[in-house]
UniProtKB/TrEMBL annotation:
GO terms for molecular function: calcium-dependent phospholipid binding; metal ion binding. Belongs to the copine family. Transmembrane segments: none annotated. GO terms for cellular component: plasma membrane. Residues 1-20 are annotated as: Disordered. It comes from the Eukaryota. This is Copine-8. PROSITE patterns: C2 (PS50004), VWFA (PS50234). It holds the Pfam family C2. The keyword Oxidoreductase does not apply. It comes from Platysteira castanea. InterPro entries: C2_dom (IPR000008), C2_domain_sf (IPR035892), C2B_Copine (IPR037768), Copine (IPR045052), Copine_C (IPR010734), VWF_A (IPR002035), vWFA_dom_sf (IPR036465).
């Protein structure tokens, strides 16, 4: 099953004993206390590693580190097994990690040639390392990332191939229906009012409730409605784990009477309707008291259907690209960029609020865009040479090709624009929304999805036109993130974020909720740690994107494209050394 084996505790360096086993649970992360969207399994292979042994080939091991968000400290996550005498290892032991689209998970893979049984890595020869993010692996074609190993100056250290596979049982659901016969009568005047309560067992032997059926009134032979439950909720993905089902008679005052119970497992239930899935309901107290006690009725499984939910990662693996566009507010209310009080102030020592919001969101999204070319737009400024006001201008000065290379390219174009344009007004959003919508309207086959990030300091001037643009865009493969910077009141923005009331324009409602608004001030870390502020902002604004993405695909009936065929490493003939 997935990562249910108890992770071996990491031994402190220097303690005797073999190399520690892989840990499949990272240190608890303050930002990740929500249930992970999914789990992915990472497989590692290397080609042409350095040969550090004189008389034979290296004996490689891979050690994975993750990076804490606040202090940037690297922590060991786990180790693969050691493979003897090869420069082209395909490690068997996998790394199982929680995956969140909205978080940047920095990874470091270190490789060593193991020379002894010591768990202390400094006792072994370093073969090089590779840095990447989990998003980079997942966002690569077929979720397969190939990168050179670096770290030893002047030497070619070979390449590493990391493949991510979403664990299947994370997203299987089952549709089940049960009925019961001849249950014990518990009510004085009528028959019982039965319902079922399902519990999954935990590793320590305790039970956690995971489902309650509805109550069927006044019958000893109830047929409950079919219900859907995820396999994770039912048994945590462990098919042989005990599932306990209790049968109760409902009472209005909440003191429900216990009729009896039975146990089963996912594996047994998966046999479907058969003689194996008719269960005797046993009341242990009655059984102990009455010699002739047989049971308190039976419960029968009527149907069992497995449904696999398609996930965000299925589309990414099938090649769907996420296109990221930035639009920046150049209105005069931001203040003169040469003054430290301005929201656009170019401080040589730290990013301004616009730069922080742009980096926080952009650095995560760029992993899902293969060409890393991002259109960057501005609005609300007077442009040289004639001073005309524009609400949709290219930050790089090239309206035919507004693309910038990577987030660094966007930042560069932003700083250049600040020096050449004049901040003006008003604050109109509709032109930049319509700009991205034109592109989104041309690719509705699920191969591309568009995310527009608008960073603004305030009050919107074209509310009616913006609402109209959003309602139109809600039919397209796009999402809009609005980050409000500075001290202004952002009440109107909350109206655009359709979480409470779905946005409408001239009697037409948005087909889906595609806008997420956040004020940046809510994320500023009081201790002045900008890295933490940016991680918190990204987590909140990006968390809704996978669901918005899936809602578009579901409404349009678009299925993920098949992933490219899995990579099979070339077979190397081992030559015997003479």
């Amino acid at each position: 099953m997935f990562g249910l084996e108890k992770p071996a505790g990491q031994r402190e360096p220097g303690r005797s004993g073999g190399l520690p086993k892989m840990a499949s649970v990272g240190d608890f992360n303050v930002l990740s206390s929500s249930i992970p969207a999914t789990k992915v399994e990472l497989s590692v292979s290397c080609r042409n590693l350095l040969d550090r042994d004189t008389f034979s080939k290296s004996d490689p091991i891979c050690v994975l580190y993750t990076q804490a968000i606040g202090n940037k400290e690297w922590r060991e996550f786990g180790r693969t097994e050691v493979i003897d005498n090869t420069l082209n290892p395909d490690f068997v032991r996998k790394f199982i990690m929680d995956y969140f689209f909205e978080e940047r998970e920095n990874l470091r893979f270190d490789f060593y040639d193991v020379d002894s049984k010591s768990p202390n890595l400094s006792k072994h020869d370093f073969l090089g390392q590779m840095f990447c993010t989990l998003g980079e692996i997942v966002g690569s074609q077929g979720s397969r990332l190939e990168k050179p190993i670096v770290g030893i100056p002047g030497k070619k250290c070979g390449t590493v191939i990391v493949t991510a596979e979403e664990l299947g049982c994370c997203r299987d659901s089952v549709l089940m229906q049960f009925c019961a016969n001849k249950l014990d009568k518990k009510d004085f005047f009528g028959k019982s009012d039965p319902f079922l309560v399902f519990h999954r067992s935990n590793e320590d032997g305790s039970f956690t409730i995971c489902h309650k059926t509805e109550v069927i009134k006044n019958t000893l032979n109830p047929v409950w409605q079919a219900f859907k439950i995820s396999v994770r909720a039912l048994c945590n993905g462990d098919y042989d784990r005990t599932i306990k089902v209790e049968v109760y008679d409902w009472d209005r005052d909440g003191s429900h009477d216990f009729i009896g119970e039975f146990t089963t497992s996912y594996r047994e239930l998966s046999r479907g309707q058969s003689q194996f899935n008719v269960y005797e309901v046993i009341n242990p107290k009655k059984k102990g008291k009455k010699k002739k006690y047989v049971n308190s009725g039976t419960v029968t499984l009527l149907s069992f259907l497995i449904e696999t939910e398609v996930s965000f990662l299925d589309y990414i693996k099938g090649g769907t690209q996420i296109n990221f566009t930035v639009a920046i507010d150049f209105t005069a209310s931001n203040g003169n960029p040469s003054q430290p009080t301005s929201l656009h102030y170019m401080n040589p020592y730290q990013l301004n609020a616009y730069g922080m919001a742009l980096r926080a969101v952009g650095e995560i999204i760029q992993d899902y865009d293969s060409d890393k070319m991002f259109p960057a737009l501005g609005f609300g400024a007077r442009l040289p040479p004639d001073g005309r006001v524009s609400h949709e201008f290219a930050l790089n000065g090239n309206p035919q090709n507004p693309y910038c290379h990577g987030i660094d390219g966007v930042m560069e174009a932003y700083y250049r624009s600040l020096k050449s344009v004049q901040l003006y007004g008003p604050t109109n959003f509709a032109p930049v929304i319509n700009h991205v919508a034109r592109y989104a309207a041309s690719v509705k086959d699920g191969s591309q999805y568009f995310v527009l990030l608008i960073i603004t300091d305030g009050v919107i001037s074209d509310m009616a036109q913006t609402k109209e643009s959003i309602v139109n865009a809600s039919k397209l493969p796009m999402s809009i993130i609005i980050v409000g910077v500075g001290p202004a009141e952002f009440d109107a923005m909350e109206e655009l974020d359709g979480d409470v009331v779905r946005i409408s324009s001239r009697g037409r409602f948005a087909e889906r909720d595609i806008v997420q608004f956040v004020p940046f001030r809510d994320y500023i870390d009081r201790s002045g740690n900008h890295v933490l502020s940016m991680a918190r902002l990204a987590k909140d604004v990006l968390a809704e994107i996978p669901e918005q993405f899936l809602s578009y695909m579901r409404v349009r009936g678009i299925k993920p494209s098949p992933a490219p065929p899995p990579y099979t490493p070339p077979i190397h003939v081992l030559q015997t050394q003479i």
